[in-house]
């Protein structure tokens, strides 16, 4: 890539990141957290909404499991020492007005000196992307237990926008905009040594989650895209099992 890389995540994710931010470490490590929520997906449904809704908890469970796996090997994860952290201005639209649907959480500008353990991902150097979930902590954790120790400060971060200068040979500085799972006391944190640790990227699951909520608009068009119709049912052509969506009378 040439020049500066600027990538920004979408705003409306229908509460996906809010759900992730609400999880505790215990929730993430609990393999039975969604045990009573994830059910076998059937082959027939009463409506499009029921069909799409049947995939919501499986997506959340897949995300939880990915974070849990990352927590177990957090000592191997890419990490960096924070050299700058301050409140950022809200994103604005083309008319220079604040967005109609602003981010729920505050936006921060964050800078680190460099990434360590950058080559643990399939031999390729790690590079921050929108959708990355990281941990911000006042230590460089070797395990999830390190984050749970008394008086430790930590929270989740989500990369919203990257402004990378590591496309060339200079990989000593990385800057990006993030949201945090809680409001940060910047005055207190300025006296602490802070680190960020990469966990996983949830960009794909967030897109799927968003798609599962997009039931508004023209329902006939939606069904036409999703299904083939006959006198008895809607047969999903996107599903290898040809899921049958019963026609609504």
UniProtKB/TrEMBL annotation:
Under the heading Pfam families, the entry gives:
DUF6469
Where does the DUF6469 domain start and stop, copy by copy?
A: 98-215
Name of the protein in its database record: DUF6469 domain-containing protein
Q: Which organism is it from?
A: Trifolium subterraneum
**Mind giving the lineage of the organism this protein is from?**
Eukaryota, Viridiplantae, Streptophyta, Embryophyta, Tracheophyta
């Amino acid at each position: 890539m040439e020049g500066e890389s600027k990538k920004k995540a979408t705003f409306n994710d229908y509460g996906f990141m809010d759900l992730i931010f609400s999880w505790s470490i215990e929730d993430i490590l609990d393999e039975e957290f969604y045990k009573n929520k994830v059910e076998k997906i059937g082959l027939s449904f009463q409506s499009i909404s029921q069909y799409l809704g049947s995939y919501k908890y499986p997506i959340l469970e897949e995300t939880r499991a990915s974070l849990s796996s990352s927590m177990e090997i957090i000592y191997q994860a890419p990490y960096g020492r924070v050299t700058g952290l301050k409140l950022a201005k809200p994103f604005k639209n083309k008319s220079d007005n604040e967005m109609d649907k602003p981010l729920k959480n505050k936006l921060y500008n964050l800078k680190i000196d460099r990434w360590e353990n950058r080559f643990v991902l399939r031999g390729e150097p790690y590079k921050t992307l929108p959708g990355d979930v990281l941990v911000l902590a006042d230590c460089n954790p070797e395990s999830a237990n390190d984050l749970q120790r008394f008086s430790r400060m930590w929270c989740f971060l989500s990369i919203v926008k990257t402004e990378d200068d590591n496309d060339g040979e200079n990989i000593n500085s990385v800057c990006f905009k993030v949201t945090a799972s809680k409001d940060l006391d910047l005055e207190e944190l300025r006296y602490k040594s802070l680190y960020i640790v990469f966990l996983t990227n949830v960009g794909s699951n967030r897109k799927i989650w968003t798609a599962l909520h997009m039931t508004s608009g023209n329902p006939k068009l939606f069904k036409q895209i999703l299904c083939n119709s006959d006198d008895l049912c809607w047969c999903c052509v996107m599903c290898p099992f040809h899921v049958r969506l019963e026609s609504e009378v």
